[in-house]
Write a structure and sequence with these properties.
This protein is mainly alpha-helical. Helices cover 62% and strands 0% of the residues. Helix 2 runs parallel beside helix 8 and helix 4 runs antiparallel to helix 5. The protein is elongated and about 55 Å long.
């Protein structure tokens, strides 16, 4: 099997991201990032054991899978927004970042960061050809949140007890590879932003030393 290439960004990716004391995760970035990856792995285990038939008894088994992916994407976007905040004129407040659960709002900030650093050509993966496609994938993931999907679906069309169209197993199987690629892209971009910020700091420090001399 041919190994998939990781997203290529214009800055090297370090083993760890350097974070300040004032962060939305209270300096638990490494632990939370490992947790986000464990969410993804757990989702894939459930997916591997999923009954692929559209049996009504197992129809809602896709719910936990999508919840795991949703939280993993949320956390990875928070890391990206944190690292990218220093490139925005108005960085996102860390307390707001810690409390929000809105992946659509986080997706909007991600787009602002990518535009600010002019990385639109690099911000691509399976299912994400540009920022419009990225926003569409985030909106699709948000619509697949099981409780909201059950509450606001049109039961007159698909019947009581049935899953809405966006949570059919065939649809979930179509979306999952895109989410796996997206998680890699978000993580790589956050690492690239951290490296870019470090280069900026080194450049500013060197300029400061030249001024003093």
């Amino acid at each position: 099997m041919k190994k998939k290439r990781s997203p290529i960004l214009p800055f090297p990716i370090g083993p760890q991201r350097e974070r300040s004391d004032s962060t939305w995760h209270n300096r638990a970035g490494i632990e939370i990032e490992l947790y986000a990856r464990s969410l993804q792995r757990s989702a894939k285990v459930l997916l591997g054991n999923l009954d692929r038939s559209e049996d009504a008894k197992t129809a809602w088994d896709v719910g936990p899978i999508m919840m795991l992916y949703r939280e993993a994407v949320e956390l990875q976007m928070k890391f990206l927004v944190e690292e990218g905040g220093r490139f925005l004129s108005s960085p996102t407040d860390q307390l707001t970042l810690a409390k929000t659960r809105s992946i659509r709002w986080l997706g909007q900030i991600v787009c602002q960061v990518v535009r600010a650093v002019q990385w639109e050509p690099e911000f691509r993966c399976e299912g994400v050809s540009n920022l419009v496609a990225f926003s569409a994938l985030i909106a699709e993931l948000d619509d697949m949140e099981p409780v909201a999907a059950a509450m606001y679906s049109d039961k007159t069309k698909h019947g009581f007890g049935d899953v809405p169209p966006q949570l059919k197993k065939a649809k979930v199987l179509e979306v999952v590879p895109k989410l796996d690629a997206l998680l890699d892209l978000l993580s790589a971009t956050a690492d690239g932003l951290a490296a870019a910020a470090q280069f900026m700091k080194l450049d500013e420090d060197s300029q400061g030393e030249e001024t003093i001399q």
